[in-house]
Design a protein that fits this description.
82 residues, 1 helix, single chain, five-stranded antiparallel beta sheet, alpha+beta
């Protein structure tokens, strides 16, 4: 039961960060860098950043099929159909 409570608290924390920062993308959404004009590298939003330096943490598989991640600002990412 403690694991469930901890998960609920983490979910609440993420929802509060999203609301406080006014972020538009949701956890689990697939996004692309705005510079990826051909939408070749899909990335998944895994966390909202608690830092003022970034808005999201995104993860993707590189060409060697290794997981990579980085922190990005909201204006650096887009949906493929935007």
């Amino acid at each position: 039961m403690n694991d469930i409570n901890k998960t609920n608290e983490q979910t609440d924390d993420m929802a509060m960060i999203k609301k406080t920062k006014g972020l538009k993308y949701d956890l689990g959404q697939v996004v692309y860098l705005t510079s990826d004009l051909n939408f070749t590298t899909p990335m998944t939003i895994t966390h909202y950043s608690m830092s003022d330096d970034h808005d999201y943490v995104v993860k993707w598989l590189n060409s060697q099929k290794k997981m990579e991640y980085m922190m990005v600002f909201e204006d650096a990412i887009t949906l493929s159909n935007s």
